[in-house]
Description:
By secondary structure, the chain is an alpha+beta fold. The protein has 5 helices and 6 strands; from the N terminus they run βαααβββαβαβ. A 6-stranded mixed beta sheet has the order 1-2-3-4-5-6, sandwiched between helices.
Amino acid sequence: MYRKQKNEKDVLYILDHLRKDDLEEVKAIHGEHWREKVYEDIMKTDFDVLIGVSKDGDIPVCMGGAWHLDKDEDGVGVVWMLCTDEIVKHKICLLRELKKEFKKYDKQFWFLYNFIYYKNDFAKNWLKWLGFKFDKPRPPQLKIPEGFELFYRLRKKKGLSID
């Protein structure tokens, strides 16, 4: 799997070929017009969107990123990823690329979070590998949808720090 910047063709391909769990997740969050909403959010963001493609570069297999929402304080970001079924052939490569990506995120965000569909075990596994916690907090101000759980990650601190 190789990385490239977002483009309309690859984003639409991934949205049209989402894994079952990812499709259920975006439909549950965004409703009937999920495709248009997700496409618009991805294409209009100023934050980087990572696109993972097969070795030959022809088949987009995933896209994701982390970005700051206006409602959150500085240094807080929402992390996300959407995949096609093709991703299972590229798990090792995905984890290697994600490790690089999260080094960049750690410079920008002290706290990353999002919600995940309770059935999405594939994504939960790689999130846990990256150090995300799934200890079931449900802060009421976050309005976590039914059937979803919060996951989060605090930036690792080096040396002594005073909080």
